[in-house]
Amino acid sequence: MATLGICDSANLNGGQKLAVKYFTVAITLFGAQVLFGLMAGLQYLMPDFLYGVLDFSVNRMVHINALVVWMLYGFLGSVYWLLEEESQHEVVGLKLGNLIFWVLTAAVTVVVLVYLLVQVGPGKESSLWLINEGREYIEAPRWADIGIVVSVLVVFYNVAATFSKGRYTGIAGVLVLDMLALFGIYLAGMFYTTNISIDQYWWWWVIHLWVEATWEVMVACIMAYGLMKVLGVRRKIVETWLYIEVALMFGSGILGLGHHYFWIGTPEYWFSIGGFFSALEPIPLVAMVVHAVFDAGARHAKNSNHPTMAWLIAHAFGNFFGAGVWGFMHTLPQINLYTHGTQWSASHGHLAFFGAYATIIIAMFYLAVQHWRGGVWMSGDLPGNGWKWKWSLGLLNLGMVGMTVSMLVSGYVQSQIERAIEGSSWIGYFAAQAHPWFTQGMWWRELFGVMFAVGFVLLVWDLLTIGKGEQRALVPAVSEG
Amino acid sequence: MATNQWWASETFWRKTAIWVTGGSMVVLMLLTMDTLSQISVGTTRVPAYSVINHRIEYKFDEQRKVQVPVIGAKEPLFGKELNEEEAEALVKLGKLTTQAKNCMNCHTLLGNGAYYAPDLTKAWLDQYWGTKEVREVQMVEFIKDPSDKLHNSMGRRMPKLGITDEEARGVVAFLKWMSSIDTNGFPYNFKSIEQEN
Q1: ipTM passes above 0.95
Q2: B102 in A contact zone (CB under 8 Å)
Q3: Domains by residue range for chain A, with CATH
């Protein structure tokens, strides 16, 4: 018998108990990401702020690493969340899974402490092994890389073995292959080479094939599960859509990798290949919007969890605009020559990571809280009309859109002044950076960042309180066929 | 019913997904093999490390309509000609230093990294360093302790990162070598330091 209204682990199955641990770390790191982002953003405006103590490079590294790790935790948590329900079988190696969770979390803690306290090392390979690999997004030192690989192998084993012993659904098939690809690709980033062209060639394998291929398929799986769960969409429908999305995502995203190979020393044929395939990358994201919005509309948006549904829709649009439109805007080499390495990339990066990934993980947070509290009512008629989740949804999304547009304005200024007019020299760089139009963008970015941070605080508050003392049980979404 | 149509069937899309993914991966593998052979050290796109013994220019190519690196007369870095192994060791020290000091989280290299500080792709050729006679010394001194040197009007400064003299020379060697990579015209319309005698 579920205990309504209080967080009781007896309300969860084994995989879900582990999932909420992953989610707890994920949201903590999300907070760290916001905090260090605000500090790095402030350094654009007040360069002496924490100079020599926590320099921009450190803050920015923690900002983007917290991002990668919290999202990975969000994904692993989501997978463990749906695993037993989807396979209709207990997680086979739950004890091992728990142990690995603690090992991974301890490793992440040590890595962050070393980033903050040691920061840099001498120009030797030992620095790359122990302190910081110095490659954007995958800065984690090599020892931690090995730990990450071992940990994710355990998760992979748990997922593959549980599905094999239980029910092997379409979602299961896609998920298992996707996780294999996701973890395999990580290995491409685990070596040192002096040749920076080859370095960046493989580095993009990790970054791009994660973010623009395997992560997209991962969220497509979560979306499929989420729509069945909160809307009651038929399995046949979501799984057919899932295959369509996989075909379109991998079909455009794998060779779309070429849009990172325009300027790193690689041959000119990547102009055509990268330009063409990456231009197709928005198509699966349109498919996802159609899918989610149509399914919601077909049921008159009647669903068992309003915050989750709202964040799933935010995901569909955020993914399309952030990854799709904002990516497409500067993906062709003819424009990328002027935008590559400017605030354009930062603008795109923010909206894409938030729109495509943060949103859907937040959707899963709400689903988890709902069931942790015993499967409570989370549709209309919440106390206070659900003002906390609504306001945090609004502030987070508006804050992010505001940051994105601000950085885009600054990016335009950079493309114009630094690249087109001044000719990409350092004088040109500084002329653009000091231009009032550019600094204005940086101010607005910081202000919208504060708005985003307020939204985050509200989100945490809401997750801690929503459904507390709620005595109404949810009415499960019923599949119509 | 639409679900009976072949184009709306689960099986059709599952097979399509598998074939499209597999096919794309095969094409990517083939392209990767070709690209890696074209960008290994010692090719026309990515010159040997000993290129640091020569003058490197960045000139407009009439056919490609973009600037390309041109390797010119002998101009050994720090006035000392290095053989291939010595050159590689020095550039390697520089590359390792750029990673260990986390340069990429302020600067961009080949346009990739963070946007708080200028791009380093053609740093070796930038007019910021004054004349080519003082460039090497200026760069080494700057990298060792930038905190009190002239930066820009905004007050943004590079911190002192504990870079040794040898490491700084390595970084300069790495930057000189990197400027010789054919980046298809990135950065565009770049104004290079005066290098003619």
Answers
A1: yes
A2: yes
A3: 1-167 (1.20.210.10), 192-294 (no CATH), 304-476 (1.20.210.10)
